[in-house]
Amino acid sequence: MLRADLLGREILLQSDPRVFFITDHYRDYPWILVRFASVDAGALPELIERAWRMVAPKSLLSKYDTDRQRA
Q: Which of 20-24, 31-35, 53-57, 67-71 has the lowest mean pLDDT?
């Protein structure tokens, strides 16, 4: 399960319903379920980072982005 805004969740659901889905329990919440055995391994880091960015404190995001630019 990953955090996703409702628009992003809808886009993922339409892009590949074999991988991304929701159940009635999550219908009104900003989460998307992922079949990790089916997801493209190359896409997974970006999906996880996007979900993390939705909840990470701004100070941590700033430090993370700064550290990535230096690398």
A: 67-71
Q: How many domains in the chain?
A: 1
Q: What's the token pair of residue 25?
A: 């329990």
The residue whose two tokens read 């889905």 is: 21
Q: What residues does 2 pair with on adjacent strands?
A: 32
Instruction: Report whether 32 contacts 12 (CB < 8 A).
Output: yes
Phi, psi of 36 (to 5 degrees): -65, -25
Domain limits at 38? 2-70
Q: Where are the beta strands (DSSP E) in the chain?
A: 2-3, 20-21, 31-34
State the number of CA atoms in the 13 A half-sphere of 27 facing the CB: 3
